[in-house]
Amino acid sequence: MEVLCFGVEPPGLGPPHRAVGLIFSMLLGVWSAQALEMSVGKIPFLQAVNGSTVMLPCTYSSCIGIKNLYFNWQFNDNGTMQKVCESTIASEEVEPNVNVLRERVEFVGKNHHNNISILLWNITFEDGGQYTCFGRNPKEKDKNHSAIFTLIVVDELRVVDNTLTIMIASAVGGAIALLMGFMLLKNFTLFVISKLEEKNKECLVTSSGIDNTENGLSGSKADSKPTPKKK
């Protein structure tokens, strides 16, 4: 006997496959969190006066540690990347032997602080531009990362004129003080008026009692008569 099946579809991918996909995504997220990261701080730029000495900050981080971490600093000279310095850090707590490739540059980083910052002495206008801090970690299958720091060289630092800000702050402060004074005066006036009203009411009550006594009303002294004597 033949059995005919109509509209029967092969079984689809069920929840186990979705679970595998979720686990894979989680593992990928964990791997991304462990990746090497280079950082030049929350403010990636600096304005400095010509002839001064400045530090270009950079630190690295890796959740799984480092092994033979390669790093370098590069300067963008009108589109041409020039190495400023480079070195390899064998492992944590080992200070690198840095090869400096540019004049007036000093490595001031400390590996036990994950610090690979450099110092620029007696900067000139030609030193202004973008500096890239680059790192590559073989322990993370040569995972690499970079961060850019911008140096701006000027003749002199501009003094910010805060006159307008001070004027606005003074006006706002004066308005608040005036409003508070008005509220205090209003509350004091209401307090005085309420006290005067209470005093007037007391005067009216006292005056009413005196009038009743003089007019000989019931309960007053005029109503009192001597008790007749018995004969």
From TrEMBL:
It is found in: Membrane. GO terms for biological process: cardiac muscle cell action potential involved in contraction; regulation of ventricular cardiac muscle cell membrane repolarization. SMART domains: IG. The chain crosses the membrane at residues 164-185. The keyword Repeat does not apply. GO terms for cellular component: voltage-gated sodium channel complex. It is a single-pass type I membrane protein. Residues 210-231 are annotated as: Disordered. Keywords: Disulfide bond, Glycoprotein, Immunoglobulin domain, Membrane, Signal, Transmembrane, Transmembrane helix. Residues 1-35 form the signal peptide. Residues 222-231 have a biased composition (Basic and acidic residues). It comes from the Eukaryota. Its main location: membrane. GO terms for molecular function: sodium channel regulator activity; transmembrane transporter binding. Residues 51-150 form the Ig-like domain. PANTHER family: MYELIN P0 RELATED (PTHR13869), SODIUM CHANNEL SUBUNIT BETA-4 (PTHR13869:SF14). This is Sodium channel, voltage-gated, type IV, beta b. The lineage of its organism: Eukaryota, Metazoa, Chordata, Craniata, Vertebrata.
